[in-house]
Amino acid sequence: MADQPRDHVYYHDPFHDQQRFFTTNSSSVAPDPSSYMSFTDCLQGSTDYGSLASAFGLSPSFQEPFSSTKKDQKPKMESGEAPVTPNSSVVLSSSTEAGDDEANNSKKSDKQTKGTGEDGGESSKKVSKPKKKGEKKEKEPRFAFMTKSEIDHLEDGYRWRKYGQKAVKNSPYPRSYYRCTTQKCTVKKRVERSFQDPSTVITTYEGTHNHHLPSTLRGSVAGLFPHSMLNPGHMAGMGFPNQDFLVQMPQMNHIYNYGGGTSNGPNPSMYQHQQQQQSNNLNQYQQLQLSDYGLLQDIVPSINKNHE
DNA sequence: CGTATTTGACCGGCGC
DNA sequence: GCGCCGGTCAAATACG
């Protein structure tokens, strides 16, 4: 069957009854929290991860398939198969499975300049290996989400320094690698654009911040994401041990429209419009989930392990 | 001049 | 064992 078993895709509509959330606007600090909830409010209000998990359609039982099985799938759909609906918005996922994101595919001749050797025999140019022998790199918790945005590098409140960029195999768009600039903080994040929906940015956080948000950046999107969500490790510690975490949030793109200063806050009409759309969004959720399934498998290899 | 980004090379894991 | 590929390093470059 060309289609993967997606009956286990974790689709949920946690915000169906919390539409206020969608009115969240990150262009500035929410001026009136009482009128609508921010992402932070929404999630912090839950305080405990159980609520958060349930809000995202997660349950303790569903943790099992995540951590048990091994990745052996060979999915991935051909590009151009099922376009993503414009209204698809955000997919969150976290993982500690240091499995490859998308090393699961057929190969394609790539011009990777490997072993060019250099004539000088300068062997000094080698990547130092800080880790001890036999000590495998620790698996950092990961947390990924998809966002509709024209901006590649979404502001999340932390300062990042780009340390690499690579062309990814099944996408015409490169993947950028960022590292938290705070000393002693080993958090990294990858940013890439969905090849299926160029308007969608996939951001993957890895590691746990050991510091607070830079004060100079308060108020941006940082305020929209609870600390726990920006710290996958915390999530893992809150009941998500070695689990992948997937969440979809419709219309999250509004959150990231701060870049151009175009979003000046939610207007009631839009709010209502979105409310009405919620009922229809169910199908759109599904479409996103289905059409991006291969992509999600890349991000969260274990997503389909639970099958069987 | 200091800091951030770019970019080619290298390394290690994994599949064949 | 070989080749592919993701991830990382670090010199070169750009920028403020």
Describe the structure.
With 308 residues, this protein is of the alpha+beta class. The chain has helices at residues 39-44, 49-55, 63-68, 227-230, 232-237, 268-291, 293-299, and strands at 90-95, 142-148, 160-167, 174-180, 188-193, 200-206, 247-249. It has a 7-stranded antiparallel sheet with strand order 3-4-5-6-2-1-7, with no helix packed on it. Helix 6 packs across helix 7. The two termini are 15 Å apart. The protein binds a DNA duplex (16 and 16 nucleotides) through residues 100-105, 107-110, 112-116, 118, 125-129, 161-166, 168-169, 175, 177, 181, 188, 190. Residues 271-281 have a biased composition (Low complexity).
Write the layout of secondary structure elements.
Layout: H1 39-44, H2 49-55, H3 63-68, E1 90-95, E2 142-148, E3 160-167, E4 174-180, E5 188-193, E6 200-206, H4 227-230, H5 232-237, E7 247-249, H6 268-291, H7 293-299
Helix pairs in contact: 6-7
The protein binds a DNA duplex (16 and 16 nucleotides) through strand 3.
Helix content: 10-25%
Number of helices, where a helix is a run of at least 4 consecutive DSSP H or I residues:
7
Give the overall shape. globular
The N- and C-terminal alpha carbons lie at a distance of: 15 Å
Q: What characterizes the major β-sheet?
A: 7 strands, antiparallel
Spans of at least 5 consecutive residues whose pLDDT stays below 50 are: 2-88, 96-135, 217-224, 235-308
Using DSSP, what is the number of strands? 7
Oligomer: single chain
Overall mean pLDDT stands at 50
Strand order of the largest sheet: 3-4-5-6-2-1-7
Category from helices, strands and their pairing: alpha+beta
Residue fraction in strands = 5-15%
The arrangement of helices and strands along the chain is: HHHEEEEEEHHEHH
GO molecular function, one term: sequence-specific DNA binding
Subcellular location: Nucleus
Protein name: WRKY domain-containing protein
InterPro entries: WRKY_dom, WRKY_dom_sf, WRKY_plant
